[in-house]
Design brief:
298 residues; 70% helix; flat
């Protein structure tokens, strides 16, 4: 069977060429900073300071990573961040589903009122001091739960999950399930959730990245170093290596300390970003579909 291909006009070819060039240019703009940071983290202090690094590592060394991992809290910081990310994301996803699914049901009494109350919390916030006092009064201060409970539900994630449920779970499916004797909980766990892998992947990734990168909440609510997440530990590493001119009498030592600080910046970026980048390929196939469907807010 012969398939006739539509012949492209000169205008079509020009359009394709311009698009290809433009996308390649955007790819370079996005990719080059990542490659530069990675290459700089494996380069020597002298190469980084003098600007010799452009694309590939110069004078390959692991000095930056050795300086990072020598810190006594780095492993506990990794363990704490993984705990906050895994447990926090699990709590977030459960709370989001339990809030979004009822709000997507047309037979839920006063669902519009409750939805407006949820949106109200996104538009108006009590502020840092009331939040701190609330966490303190609940006895969560300087505990792991101080970084999980106050952020257990994300309003934006509820909105996109609710929209996804409304668009992908037809009322006829619910009616058929009820006729077969399926109650609401069985319908949610056996039918709704298996059909909602894209949106679950999207909100899980959003929540996980938020927990992994949290810094300010840990700075406010935590005092014990054993509870510090990785971001707070990495900040301490960088701060501790700041140059105090009163304590440095030798010009060579001053130069080495300044160079180490510059190298540490790139090493810290790689250490902090690698786990999240490693997770993304596993949810990428669901990510685009979930974002596109969930973005249609209704």
């Amino acid at each position: 069977m012969n398939i006739e291909h539509i012949k492209e006009t000169r205008g079509d070819k020009l359009f394709t060429l311009v698009n290809t060039i433009g996308l390649c240019f955007l790819l370079v703009l996005v990719l080059y900073p990542l490659v530069y940071v990675l290459s700089s983290s494996f380069s020597s202090v002298e190469a980084v300071v003098t600007g010799k690094v452009w694309l590939w590592p110069v004078d390959f060394t692991l000095a930056g990573y050795e300086a990072v991992f020598k810190h006594r809290l780095i492993m506990s910081g990794f363990a704490n961040s993984f705990f906050y990310m895994i447990v926090g994301t699990l709590v977030n996803v459960i709370m989001t589903i339990l809030a979004a699914y009822p709000l997507s049901r047309k037979d839920f009494f006063m669902r519009n009122f409750f939805m407006m109350m949820v949106i109200f919390t996104m538009l108006f916030d009590g502020g840092l001091i009331p939040r701190y006092l609330l966490v303190k009064d609940l006895g969560l201060l300087d505990t792991r739960w101080a970084l999980i409970i106050p952020s257990a539900l994300g309003v934006w994630q509820v909105i996109i999950a609710r929209t996804y449920f409304k668009l992908t779970i037809p009322d006829e499916m619910l009616d058929a399930a009820h006729i077969d004797g399926c109650n609401d909980f069985k319908f949610l766990f056996k039918i709704v959730l298996p059909l909602s892998a894209p949106i679950l992947a999207v909100i899980s990734l959003f929540y996980a990245v938020g927990h992994w990168n949290q810094f300010f909440s840990a700075l406010i609510f935590l005092k014990s170093q054993s509870l510090f997440p990785l971001q707070l530990v990495l900040n301490d590493i960088l701060v501790q290596n700041q140059v105090d001119l009163a304590m440095v009498s030798d010009v060579k030592e001053l130069s080495e300390r300044e160079g180490l600080i510059e190298l540490l910046k790139y090493s810290l970026i790689v250490v902090a970003s690698a786990p999240v980048l490693a997770i993304y390929p596993f949810v990428q196939r669901h990510f685009v579909k979930g974002v596109m469907i969930g973005s249609l807010k209704g």
